[in-house]
Structures are given as structure tokens and as C-alpha cells.
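Our preliminary data section would be incomplete without showing what the modeling component actually yields. Below, a chain of 216 amino acids is followed by its predicted structure, encoded as C-alpha cells that our downstream tools consume directly.
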Amino acid sequence: MDLAKAEKKEGTAPLDWYAWERRAEERGITPVCGIDEAGRGPLAGPVCAAAVILPLDCEIEGLNDSKKLSEKKREALFPVIQEKAISWGIGWASAEEIDTYNILQATFLAMQRACENLSVKPAWALVDGNRMPPLQIPGETVVKGDAQCASIAAASILAKVSRDRLLREWDELYPAYGFSKHKGYGTKAHYEAIAKYGILPIHRKSFLKNLGDKNR
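Predicted structure:
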């Protein structure tokens, strides 16, 4: 069920951001964590996942799908989420792991690590998307969960901000590639930089098979 679409179609009350968490807790399953990732599509860098446990009905002004927020707003919400969360964890899977296992399995690996990095063990996981990673706890997927589920939206922001910060650091190491602007995605400028300067160790070789062997 897509709660956001249902709200728009039926003209119902404002979206209940905690409906999914409440549904689990009403069955006696608590605490509940939301899990989301950032960086599945880029040509460079790791995929990052975050897991967040929020107090039920915790109010975080401006909380939304990270893709619908400006970079400035995501950065502002990052410490607010960390402060208000019962627990939060970040997990990574490197470009090398992406090349070794494929992007889906590497994403699952990052999600596992994020969940394992929670200081409070959750009893249930709400995972954005339609594929459930192999976690040590049970859970369910929520299609477009970052747009309708508070803990998943919070996780989407932590994952996106964490990854963007890393790419900005790499921009200082590799200034010719423009990582602070495109964050590793396949923009024209990024492809032009690869063609001119070559493939870096942080690039996903499996995403660049057609560019030849230009390792530096």
C-alpha cells in the first residue's frame, strides 16, 4: 500500500508518517528500524546505507524523502535526526565490493552493516524498496518508503548526507574529477574527466566496462 498515493487519491487526512512503525508496534514488535540507501547508481564511490530507530510519533520538522530536499536542508536535518533517534547506524559497501558482488548484493551488505551498527537491536526492519536484504532480524519492504515512512525517510537523509560528505572529501584528493558537484554520478563532465585522466581506484570498474582499461 502506498500511503502517499492513497492520501492524494482519496483526499484523506495528512499522511501518517508513523503508520508502518505503529502497525508493527501494535503487534507487540518493538523497536522498529527504518533502512534506506544512497548511491546505487554512481560510477564511483561506495554505496551507503543507514538504519534509524525513532521514538513513535517523534516530530522532526521538514522530514521527507532525501531526494525531495535540498542539500542544505539535508545537512540541517542530519544532526536533528541523530539527536532525536533512539539509535542510528551507518553501513558502507566499497566500489571493490560492488564490482565483486554486484550492486544489489553490495547494497544488501551495506544495509546489513548499518543495522548491525545500531546500538539498540531492533525487532523489526522497514526497508525501502521491494527487495528484502538478508538481515538478522525479520522485517518487510516498503515501496517508496522514504516518501511515506518516518524512520525510512530519516535513514535516507543520513545515508545521503554521509555519502555526499565522503565524495566532497574525495573531491579534494581528485580535484580534476568534480566529485563535489556530481557525487560520482555519470554526468557528461564526469565521463569527460575519466576519458582525460583515467579510471581511479574509487571507480566502479563494472560500471565502466565499455571505457577500456584506463586504471591509473
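The CA atoms of residues 60 and 80 lie 7 Å apart. The longest helix spans residues 150-173. Preliminary results of this kind motivate Aim 1 of the renewal.
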